[in-house]
Amino acid sequence: MEVQTSSLKQVRKSAGLTQAQLAQLTGVSRQTIIATERGDYAPSVFLALRIAHALETTVEEIFSLQEES
Question: Fewest CB within a 10 Å sphere: which of 14, 54, 57, 59?
Answer without folding.
Answer: 14
